[in-house]
Amino acid sequence: MNITIERIMPCLADPEKIRFVAKIDEDISEYLPYLNAIIPKAIYNHTGKSLTITMGERIITIYPNKISAGKINDEKDANEIIKWIKEKIDYCKENKEKIKPDYKRKDKLEVLHVYKLLPQKNCKKCGENSCLAFSIKLINEEKNIIDCKEIFLPEYDEKRKLLFDMLKASGYNVPSFY
Ligand code: SF4
Asked: What distance in Å separates the CA atoms of residue 95 and residue 14, rounded to the nearest whole number?
């Protein structure tokens, strides 16, 4: 199995970082629940066939045939992440009989991971006093991401994409047009 970077782009959420899309040259759907079993705090969406991992600020989503990642330090960092993911997939393949696949989402989203991807304007247009308060309610499903109108402004395109990917991977509702 080979994983190759197809595109490297500036990370609009953080101009000092990059994002990338990499292609996996085979369908690894069957190994996603095995990865979910061995990677702590991974967020697995069995129906949507995706596994999201946060590593520090980095947000990485693995799909059956591709990987997309944001807030990556540089190209070297991207290659190290790909190498790490490849090793994990190879490990799952080699140890399939010993690993119990995990089809459940293990963790709720963390408040700070959501907060970092919000506009952080504290404009109160969502009815909450701060973006942090909104993050807490969003995680507890007392608010929906569409309640934050600011996130739909073009300047937040990249943050919105990362946030929506993370929410979708965790089984939260995101607008159907996304
Ligand atoms: S509308 Fe969005 S940017 Fe404004 S306070 Fe609420 S979460 Fe923050």
From this structure: 38
**What is the average pLDDT score of the chain?**
90
Query: 125 in ligand 1 pocket by Cβ < 6 Å?
Result: yes
Domain covering 3-94 assigned CATH 3.30.310.10 in the classification:
yes
Residue nearest atom 7 in ligand 1 by C-alpha distance: 131
Dump pLDDT digits (tens) for 133-155: 999 999 888 899 999 999 999 99
Give the position, in ligand 1's atom list, of the atom nearest the Cα of 127.
6
For 32, 38, 137, 154, 164, the CA distances from 118, given in Å and listed in that order, are 28, 29, 13, 13, 11
State pTM to two decimals: 0.69
User: Considering the domain 111-169 in this protein, what is its CATH number?
Assistant: 1.10.15.40
